[in-house]
TrEMBL record:
This is NAD-dependent succinate-semialdehyde dehydrogenase. The keyword Iron-sulfur does not apply. The active site is at residue 258. It comes from Novosphingobium flavum. Pfam families: Aldedh. PROSITE patterns: ALDEHYDE_DEHYDR_CYS, ALDEHYDE_DEHYDR_GLU. Residues 25-481 form the Aldehyde dehydrogenase domain.
Length: 489
């Protein structure tokens, strides 16, 4: 398949450990599958505990010199990584579409998004400032130094295989940390290509390692327990996040977690319907609904409910479903058969409870893991669609009457990652934005993610923030230095 790339050397068939490509392990190999066709793209080595140990030890050796490198030099290297990502944008996007399934136009957008974090943190590398604090005694100076945490382990998901790595690796490298990345089993090729480009940019051997394999628990158990690993950063489900936090507690590791979501989207009667329709489509159907900040529950005030439902159904019916490499495709497959079964289960529960399917409602005629974009009305808060994260192209509409009712329902979940509001009433926007128990609120937009804003959740949606000037704080620790004896002799 590497013949499809402009530069075939970006198609790597091995794990990246200590600057070298490991193409075989004693544990055999596993296949990477294209979710649109079912085709096996390639076989990659199965890493387990021993390979994870090697990667951690390599990162620890590289840390000795990398943390001493000047901020300016780290900035230049990370900036070169950004330049190479932009230069090879087409190939990286193609890898995403092949292994994850999203339309190529969306994959190109993801590479832009992923690169923006590398560019941002290349600049932030030079702004990791300390403090001089007024001392309580004569002859003393109090310093607060911000120093790299150390070896970091990143465990990343399949739905955004480039961006979920750069959001973590770029600030880590910029701060002077080294990293071991375990990408999702389904989408390692993008991570390996990013590793190749990092080496070309001048990231030292061992400072950025990528483990392949389908034994995530065995790899994760080493990363969370190893004394040399000082930080765990994870994006994925709340269930797995809880496990990692428990495991990391034994060695009291620094942890940042971007976990599951159940994002409410509230459309009030005074909303601009044109704006609301576009915002809902963006918030729901990006990456076939497979996003942690996807609108999972769409609350529509009764005065506009029927009109909005009709427009959303018409727009959904017109969406082109297919292989992401085909022209004009807007909805690709979901990641695998298990995801399809989950969609069917959620939808069957809603219909059994009295919900009505306006559009879609079943597997697509294309077969495989393609599912029809679906709009459902008559959804209530007791249904699985409203209680669990669906992670697919099903749009459930919930009718509501009052602002208080909508906010109460929106907050009725253990999750608190993202929420969306559509309204033209400024006072209401302030009230609702402050009342929603989420880390992110989009107002009159379904697209909120960028490199300059702090991304993260509250409640059981996570710990810490990615992006913005706050993002690099996740990879530094404060050291207090009390310097005495400065009075003149």
């Amino acid at each position: 398949m590497n013949h499809m790339l402009n530069e075939a050397t970006l198609w790597r068939n091995g794990a990246l450990i200590d600057g070298r490509w490991l193409t075989e392990t004693p544990h055999g190999s596993y296949g990477v599958v294209n979710p649109a066709t079912g085709e096996v793209l390639c076989s990659l080595p199965r890493c387990r505990e021993s390979e994870t140990e090697l990667a951690v030890e390599a990162a620890a050796r590289a840390l000795v010199d990398w943390r001493k490198t000047t901020a300016g030099n780290r900035s230049e290297i990370v900036r070169r990584w950004y330049d190479l990502i932009v230069e090879h944008k087409q190939d990286l996007a193609l890898l995403i579409t092949l292994e994850e399934g999203k339309p190529l136009t969306e994959a190109l957008g993801e590479i832009d998004y992923a690169a923006s974090f590398v560019q941002w943190f290349a600049e932030e590398a030079k702004r990791v400032y300390g403090e001089v604090i007024p001392a309580p005694r004569h002859g003393q100076r109090i310093l607060a130094l911000r120093q790299p945490v150390g070896v970091c382990a990143a465990i990343t998901p399949w739905n955004f295989p480039a961006a979920m790595i750069t959001r973590k690796a770029a600030p880590a490298l910029a701060a002077g940390c080294t990293m071991v990345v375990k990408p999702a089993t389904q989408t390692p090729l993008t991570a390996l290509a990013l590793g190749e480009l990092a080496l070309r940019a001048g990231v030292p051997a061992g400072a950025f390692n990528v483990l392949t394999g389908d034994d995530a628990r065995r790899i994760g158990s080493v990363l969370t327990s190893h004394d040399l690993v000082r930080k765990i950063t994870f994006t994925g489900s709340t269930e797995v996040g809880r496990v990692l936090l428990r495991q990391a507690a034994a060695t009291v590791k620094n942890c940042s977690m971007e976990l599951g979501g159940n994002a409410p989207l509230i459309v009030f009667d005074d909303a601009d319907l044109d704006v609301a329709v576009e915002g809902i489509l963006n918030a729901k159907y990006r990456n076939s609904g497979q996003s942690c900040i996807a609108a999972n529950r769409i609350f529509v005030q009764s005065g506009i409910h029927d009109a909005l439902a009709k427009r959303l159904a018409a727009r959904t019916r017109a969406l082109k479903v297919g292989n992401g490499l085909e022209d004009g495709v807007q909805i690709g497959p979901v990641i695998d058969e298990a995801a399809v079964i989950k969609l069917e289960r959620h939808l069957a529960d809603a219909v059994a409870g009295g919900a009505q399917v306006l559009v879609g409602g079943s597997r697509h005629d294309l077969g495989g893991s393609f599912f029809q974009p679906t709009v459902v009305t008559g959804v209530n808060r007791a249904m699985t669609l409203a209680r669990e994260e669906t992670f697919g192209p099903i749009m459930p509409l919930v009718r509501f009457e009052t602002e208080v009712e909508a906010v109460t329902a929106a907050n009725d979940t253990m999750f608190g990652l993202a929420a969306y509001i559509f309204s033209r009433d400024a006072a209401r926007i302030w009230r609702v934005s402050e009342g929603l128990e989420t880390g992110i609120v989009g107002v009159n937009t379904g697209l909120t993610s960028n490199e300059v804003a702090p991304f993260g959740g509250v409640k059981q949606s996570g710990l810490g923030r990615e992006g913005s000037r706050h993002g690099i704080d996740e990879y530094v620790e404060l050291k207090y230095v009390c310097w005495a004896g400065l009075d003149p002799a």
